[in-house]
């Protein structure tokens, strides 16, 4: 299966996928990595692995719709079976969702529907919850609202800071991403009434 991975940051989730896909039994390869900004470590990882990269920065386009069209075109050019947002910090638009809405997944560093948005671990700590975690889900038009594929729980410790909790979540998040992307591409899936089933 062909994976296109979208990133905005350090790309540790991407790196975990690259390691997993090195084994042919995994059933997928990363055929391209896209980003919404230059100068991020994830793009260097991809380039070092010989994978084509592209950058579509919102501010390079006159309108958000133009950006959405460009991103959709670049991703489509790589004919992905699955598109993975791995710390991609932009909400895609209608054109992208029309093209890939049935196979665009995102990993979030909180147990949805609690703590959507870009500060999951910080918001979880501030709320005082005793468990946190990561959620893998299919992206829909909302913010972190789509059908859930998998969730992994990690404890919140009394002496946690935003950094320590974020790191604990990321370890679980990477393992979950690698595990479930593999299952999705090898086994397929159905979605009915928001319920994602992997046969
Ligand atoms: C992930 O924890 C994701 O949930 C959050 O940003 C992080 C991406 O990290 N939105 P990386 O770029 O894969 O290291």
From TrEMBL:
Keywords: Purine biosynthesis, Transferase
Gene3D superfamilies: Formyl transferase, N-terminal domain
Enzyme category, top tier: transferase
Residues marked Raises pKa of active site His (site): 144
HAMAP family: PurN (MF_01930)
Assigned protein family: Belongs to the GART family.
Name of this chain's protein: Phosphoribosylglycinamide formyltransferase
Organism: Actinoplanes hulinensis
């Amino acid at each position: 299966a062909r994976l296109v991975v979208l990133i905005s940051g350090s790309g540790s989730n991407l790196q975990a996928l690259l390691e997993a896909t090195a084994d042919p039994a995994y059933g997928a390869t990363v055929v391209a990595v896209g980003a919404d900004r230059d100068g991020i470590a994830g793009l260097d990882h991809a380039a070092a692995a010989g994978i084509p990269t592209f950058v579509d920065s919102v501010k390079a386009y006159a309108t958000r719709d133009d950006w959405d069209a460009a991103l959709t075109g670049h991703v489509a050019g790589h004919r992905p079976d699955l598109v993975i947002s791995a710390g991609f910090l932009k909400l895609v638009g209608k054109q992208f969702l029309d093209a890939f809405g049935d196979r665009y997944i995102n990993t979030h560093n909180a147990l949805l529907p609690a703590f959507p948005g870009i500060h999951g671990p910080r918001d979880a700590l501030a709320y005082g919850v005793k468990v946190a975690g990561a959620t893998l889900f299919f992206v829909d038009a909302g913010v972190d609202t789509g059908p859930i594929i998998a969730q992994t729980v990690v404890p919140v410790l009394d002496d946690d800071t935003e950094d320590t909790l974020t790191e604990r979540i990321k370890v679980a998040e990477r393992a979950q991403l690698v595990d479930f992307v593999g299952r999705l591409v090898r086994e397929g899936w159905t979605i009915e009434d928001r319920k994602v089933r992997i046969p």
